[in-house]
DNA sequence: CTAAGTAATTGGCATAGTCCCACTAACGAG
DNA sequence: CTCGTTAGTGGGACTATGCCAATTACTTAG
């Protein structure tokens, strides 16, 4: 069953490094989107083959590092992201790594976890995965309704926590929207992630004085006053605000 | 030379997971201390044996994950920390992981990087490493004067950057001091890490209203007015301030 | 054509933490 | 006692925010 050759020596001093039995190395990706004012995460169903661990359960998209194909860990994460969503250049950030002897029944394993933000209109759930084994789940609290495979519930929890804390002082939510959006749409996105309301005036002045957006000539019409459309100035990395939302001097 | 059995199949659909050749898995630890108003990092010299990569160069303390001894990644990091410094319960936090095909000449490798803050009085450079192959180096900018092995210069750079950014809005520097310290000593520690001065008044009111410290009866005497000594209230995890230092409304 | 309805956007004021700077307090040395 | 030094406090100016209300720009019902 073992793919590695277990010939670790017990000699502590003159141990040859390559004698160590190697842990399994995987990459998992937590893919977030906001759809209909709800924060959602993309999950895939594990094969029902009983020879696989956690057959039929939902899990984060991921898999083994393929040292022949993946130049580095991030490339591996991007590959898995593209395989599932077809998205090419999303926001992608490393969350951390988790490794221990018990998380995978196949042996000591370490997973490198990334999290990604995608705009809902950019995602086409791809060919390979038919609709029944790849699905969006709404985040409730910091979990989803389903029981997840492996330790993915805690990975998800960590990802939600990191997302929420970064949203407090960055422009991250803009990566969850299409290229052009209104300030109100952006605010609703913040609110969907943070699960609380923000002050309209403070939100607007903050975003507009930070010089992260620029207005486009068109406006978004509807049954009422049309809203100014904006675009992100640099759509690669988020802007860091000097202080988090809702931490005014006037607030104890 | 290979410890793993390279029998990866080229078949993309029915690939057996355990057929993947496994990357090397290591853990590295960036150990920080402030000594004499300078931020320093602990490095070890690699063996001069030419069969090892980067012989004789300085590197971050670290090594292969030992799946027989290490319950999880953090335990592995703690083990390496204890082996080098004798410190038992320091501040330890994961920084992230780096993995690619080129960073280690022995093959595709991934390292899990932790960073740790230790109080200088708690450290005794231990037995195993004699003074010539374990040493503190002063951080200059975000590097040290020496050329480091592997990609450790960029790992160090990332660690310094993370430390600096967290110091802006947490009580982390308190973990670099002995149990009892004065507010001025704490402020000097902040300043040593950030490499800039902070406002005395703002610093004091911030720390004291945050309820992270408590005064101890003794005071620290000297040739001038004695200073109040304080201790950390919870010495396990740092306090998060509502906003970073130096981001007053009165500052554009 | 007008009034009502709705969402976008702006105005105005009190608040409270920071910055800046100066002042007072406590101690040893000479 | 005076001087030098460090600890610690006082007070005013500044400004992003919270809060609330007013104004603007539309569509649609009547």
- Note the run of SSEs of chain A as H and E: EEEEHEEEHEHHEE
Greatest interface and its residue counts?
A-B, 42 and 42 residues
Poorly predicted runs of 5 or more residues of chain A: 1-14
Count of helices of chain A? Answer: 4
Average residue pLDDT of chain A: 86
Q: Helical percent range of chain A?
A: 10-25%
Largest sheet of chain A: 7 strands, mixed
Beta fraction of chain A: 25-35%
Q: Report the C-alpha radius of gyration of chain A, rounded.
A: 21 Å
What global shape of chain A is seen? Answer: elongated
Which structural category fits the helices and strands of chain A? alpha+beta
- Please identify the oligomeric state: homodimer
Fold and architecture overview:
The structure is a homodimer of 252-residue chains. Chain A has 252 residues and is α+β, with helices and mostly antiparallel strands. Chain A has four helices and ten strands. Chain A is elongated, with a radius of gyration of 21 Å. Chain B binds a DNA duplex (30 and 30 nucleotides) through residues 182-184, 199-202, 204-206, 209, 221-228, 242-243, 245-252.
């Amino acid at each position: 069953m073992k793919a590695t050759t277990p010939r670790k020596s017990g000699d502590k001093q003159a141990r040859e490094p390559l004698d160590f039995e190697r842990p399994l190395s995987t990459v998992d990706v937590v893919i977030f989107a906001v759809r209909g004012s709800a924060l959602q995460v993309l999950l895939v169903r594990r094969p029902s083959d009983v020879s696989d661990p956690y057959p039929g359960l939902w899990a984060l998209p991921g898999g083994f590092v393929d040292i022949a194909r993946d130049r580095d860990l991030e490339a591996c994460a991007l590959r898995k992201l593209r395989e599932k969503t077809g998205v090419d250049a999303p926001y992608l950030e490393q969350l951390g790594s988790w490794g221990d002897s018990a998380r995978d029944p196949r042996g000591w394993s370490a997973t490198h976890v990334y999290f990604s933000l995608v705009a809902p209109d950019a995602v086409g759930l791809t060919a390979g995965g038919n609709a029944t084994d790849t699905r969006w789940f709404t985040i409730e609290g910091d979990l989803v309704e389903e029981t997840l495979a492996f330790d993915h519930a805690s990975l998800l929890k960590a990802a939600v926590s990191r997302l929420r804390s970064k949203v407090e002082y960055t422009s991250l939510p803009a990566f969850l929207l299409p290229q052009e959006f209104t300030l109100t749409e952006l605010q609703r996105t913040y609110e969907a992630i943070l699960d609380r309301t923000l002050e309209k005036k403070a939100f607007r002045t903050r975003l507009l004085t930070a010089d992260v957006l620029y207005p486009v000539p068109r406006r978004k019409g509807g049954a009422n006053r049309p809203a100014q459309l904006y675009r992100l100035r640099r759509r690669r990395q988020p802007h860091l605000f000097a202080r988090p939302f809702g931490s005014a001097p006037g607030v104890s």
